[in-house]
Protein: CRISPR-associated helicase, Cas3 family
Amino acid sequence: MNQSSFFNLKSHPDKFLIDHLRNVGLFCKNTIQSKKINSNIFNLNDEILANFSFITGVSHDFGKGTINFQNYINEKDEKRKSSLKNNPETRHGLLSSLFTYFVIKEYLKDLKFEFLPMLGYFAVKKHHGNLGDVTNEILDLDDKNVEILNRQINSLCLEELKLIYLELLPNIDIIKFISTYKSIIKEIKSNRRTFSDHLQNEKSIQGDAPGLQYYLLTQLFYSILLNSDKLDASGIQEIDRNNAIPLDLVDNYRIIKGYDKPKNKMDIIRNEIYSDVIGELKTLSLDNNIYSLNVPTGTGKTLTVLSFSLKLRDKIINERNFMPKIIYSLPFLSIIDQNFEVFEDVFKKVQGYTPTTDILLKHHHLSDIFYETNENVDYDTSESLLLIEGWNSEIIVTTFIQLFHSLISNKNRSLRKFHNIINSIVILDEVQSIPHEYWLLFKEVISLFSKCFNTYFIFVTATQPLIFDESKKEIVELVTNKKYYFNKFDRIELIPNLQPLLLNNFKEIIRSDVEENKDNNFLIVLNTINSSKSVYQYLESLKITGIKLYYLSTNITPCQRIDRINDIRNNKARKIIVSTQLIEAGVDIDVDTVYRDFSTMDSINQVSGRCNRNYSEGKKGLVKLFILKDENKEYYRYIYSPFLIDKTKEVLKEAPERINENYFLTLSNNYFKKIKDSGSDDVSNKILSFVQKLEFEQLYKNFKLIQEDYYKIDVFIELDYFAKAVWNQYKVIKELKNPIERKNEFLKIKKDFYEYVISIPKNKAPKPENETGIAYVSIEELKDRYDLETGFIPGSGGTLLF
Structure:
């Protein structure tokens, strides 16, 4: 504790208020000054941004200077302390936000951005919670809360607060605040309607689109304040940025692996694409912020885009004088681990060691909670979690959920890393997974974010959605002649069968094909867990010799899925894989024949990328598409939007009966054009209206990157005796009385715990335990509730989806 002889007020049990306010204020100011922000877009300048951030930092805990809060923070008896915490007069957010509003108005009197004090009020008010709708936060200034504020003002430890702010904000008169706070409340309340109208009428810098500038500013200030507050409270020192990643890292890796010496046709094409993309850097203008790498599946996009990003990073350092992070984002957990291992291997092979977490970080809900640097600092679990969730690394491999819910969210935990996306290179791999109803939303947010915050986005896919229009130069293609590469491929043939077929008849077709083509590997992708289990069990009953049979779906535990995917990739035996659509995008497997239950065009294209992926000479893979049905309806109706299915049928009916791979780009373009031309922007426009009006709670309720039409609960599967030990640890942790200790102890086992957790529709799952709140299948119950091959055995009735 950095005690100063005149100060006694505390912000935390082990920290003086003046030290915390000073540290947070400087942390906020240093953070925003370290960013390259086009402040002119906001009609501001860099000095105002820095001063605003400093003010929010040194004002955010002003309300802790009351007698009630000091009694609470110094109380040793836990029972008494809990009672004091629940006293409304102990809370400090609303009083601190009023003070922040006052200070910003005093410091920035001549500011043209008239509602900036309101943003300060809002950010500080919610720095211990999630953002709400901004106008509702003003309504909190009702008679009841004003009476509490009156009592808090009367209980301020005024003499010490005057000394604190004489040092931190020497031009601010606290006595003036105390004498005018009631008029400040009236001013904020009277401005509510004007502010709301102003937000609604604000136009984007891009024309007639909704103005999102206030939204981005709010997220920026809120994120920086959250991060600064949490790191200082935890005592963690700021992590120094690391510029030790060579721009030729991937080039050297490719030499070590022999990729620079092509052995076959596929290698030649991969090298051509790699050279073309890297060659674009010579003439690339950094005034363009949005790029596309749109090439066929299996052509080495992962290494190519990593190499391009490292070189782009170096170019930005030299030409724009800031050092971007690289954020590599993917839609599916099944490929995050796979691609992270590739990145890790690049460092190991070239530099001879595993990169520390400040260089390369994997972040999703199943990740290890362990953070390390080369500075030999030991971070405990809670400190590691703070650093991981703040994306304190140079290269972050993460999910679409983590990324987009940090850009479009109201959640405290998600938004804390918003400022670390600024000035980054953001790679969106398998970008076709973004739901079409969000195209306009993402276009508007990404466009303005990239311009305001000097952030570069790279869309990576074999099937490019029309979020940005290449013909209008909204996005720059990194492969100058992508048609050339799509036309070079003749690996597969797609055969659509558009007449509905019962599942039992489909099984016979598979049996005949497997028996006739004795050297072929097969992948069978179904739309529901029920149909996939039925086909798997049928094939198992045939007892085909010389075959390794695999089953994959979300119905089996994550640890089993990973083990099976690794075995599929490494096992040279003949194989048949039965899966739901989780296998489609990015999973690096190669089979001769794919059977696919009918789905959307982008999904069909993706699963086709698992067929003859490595371009075996002298033969062509087959992708056979069927419309399968049960007694009630087609299986695709359980999964996909009717709108997208209709567009898929339209493009397939317009295509040849047997479709060669060099036609796939045309298929994809036709499909996305039909979606663009006849799709609705209603969902995006609705959410954009919430964004524009700073209605964060409505935004959270309406924006769901993954839509689920039924309620799921988690089920822990006690698959083996290690799982049993993990479950027993979990039960002990749940009994801990101290919530912080309970959280920290769970974080230590979190990764192992979720390796055994699957999500099941509530009406199919066991009843959750009262003690733990999670459903549980014990090792003794496995034979009745969990099949070791096909996974969870549900209750009666209905269709299990993937």
In short: The CA atoms of residues 59 and 100 lie 6 Å apart.
